[in-house]
Structure formats: structure tokens, C-alpha cells
């Protein structure tokens, strides 16, 4: 495989920017995510690829629930605490909305999806989860989602 040739082409696959969340032993867990995609209509399904070894993987495996907080094009402030891997309290100072699933839901995110894990595929350095969307809300229909194009498909 020629990574120098493939990397720039792979990087042109657009992705959204999300904060993926769950609960681990009563603690709110969240991370910046970009590998999220709608995968079905009936029932509504998404796929989420999470980097192996992240605490969110443990939380999702135990709770079987994941929240997808869709960031809008003006939500860099919400993204910042989750982009710092050494931040033990990324939710500090952020307002959370309650939901019946107890999944951390950012009040200022463009949208939120609560999902139940239905399956998984081991995929190299990531685990790919299939999840049924069981709840959701669009907080601001006037805003656009944040979209990311990477320079190199082998790097975040």
C-alpha cells in the first residue's frame, strides 16, 4: 500500500464533527469523534467507529448506549475540551440536557441522537458499532453541521 498516494485521497472523504458520549460506572464519558454515518432507515441506524483503547469503548460496551452530539459550524468552543486527551473533566462548564437514557447530552449542540448498540465489527485500530437511534432532537434548524476535510486520511 502506498500511503503517500492513498492518504490525500482518503482525506477527501468528508466527515462531521461529533462529541460521542456514554456513562461508565455513573461517570460521564465523552470524546471527539468524526467516524459517524447514517446506516439505515427502518429502524433508524448509524455506525460509529471508536479508536480502540479509549474509555468510551469501555463505557459503550458496558452500557450498550451511545450519544452522538452533532456539532454545528460555530461549535468550536464545545469541541475544544474533548480534543484534549489529558482533560479529565471535559464536561466542566458545559450545560447538559437530561434525557430518559441518562446519556450525556450537550445543551448547546446542534443536535443529539441517543442510540442503542446492536452490533460491532472489529476493524483494525477502531471498533465499528452499529447502533439504533432511539431518541433525538434538532436544537437549532437554522444552523449547519460542522464538516471536516482532512489533508491526510491516515491522521485525525
What layout of secondary structure does this protein have?
Blueprint: H1 3-11, E1 15-16, E2 18-24, E3 27-33, E4 36-40, E5 45-51, H2 55-63, E6 65-70, H3 76-79, E7 96-97, E8 105-106, E9 111-123, E10 126-138, E11 147-148
Antiparallel strand pairs: 1-11, 2-3, 2-6, 4-5, 5-10, 6-9, 7-8, 9-10
What is the tally of beta strands? 11
Taken as a percent bin, the fraction of beta residues is 35-45%
| Global shape | globular
Distance between the termini: 19 Å
CATH topology grouping? Pnp Oxidase, Chain A
> What would CATH call the architecture?
Roll
Determine and state the CATH class. Mainly Beta
Q: Uncertain runs with pLDDT below 50, 5 residues or more?
A: none
Report mean pLDDT, rounded to a whole number.
94
Lateral strand order in the biggest sheet = 3-2-6-9-10-5-4
Q: What is the structural class?
A: mainly beta
Backbone CA Rg: 15 Å
Q: Please describe the biggest sheet, giving its number of strands, its sense, and whether it closes into a barrel.
A: 7 strands, antiparallel
CATH superfamily: Electron Transport, Fmn-binding Protein, Chain A
Q: What is the string of SSEs from the N terminus onward?
A: HEEEEEHEHEEEEE
* Tally of individual helices: 3
- Helix content percent band: 10-25%
Please give the domain count: 1
